[in-house]
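REVIEWER CHECKLIST
Item 1: Sequence provided? yes
Item 2: Single chain? yes
Item 3: Sequence as submitted:
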Amino acid sequence: MGAALSDILLITAAALGLGAVLSASALLFGLVKWAGAAYLAYLGFRLIRGAAHPGAIESAPQERATTVFRRSFLVAVTNPKGYLFFAALLPQFIDPTQPAARQYLVLAALFVATDLMVMSLYAAVGACSQRRGGRLAGQWLGRFCGLAMIGVAASLALMRRAGA
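Item 4: Structure as written out by the authors:
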């Protein structure tokens, strides 16, 4: 749900032209980029640390859903690639002779529905692998995902603005 909500925010930003502002402003681009990289690295280190203590994640089931929601939302909205992606992609599907708001609303609904399906599939695969793989497999998966997030954070930190 956090990723779906972030889609709505990113598409709204693209519809308002904020993706173009982000693309044109070195300062704003840098702020979003470094915030995203830092947050991804933080999440990666938490995953690695949590893999060493798997009971810590399971000890707070009520907090887990809200935490996952918040984290997935923050990962998406602090990634400048999302803004640039929607700013570059969506205008290609907008008919300038028709009201733009309705078209952006339809595109947002399609992206949100697709994102919800994909994230639900990820969750189902993760739950199935955790049940079948046991605690040790979960620990290794946590470590791998943590390292992957740190790698993505590093690649985001090295990303340059188009034309810079």
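Item 5: Key structural point noted by reviewer: The chain is about 85% helix and 0% strand.
Item 6: Recommendation: ____
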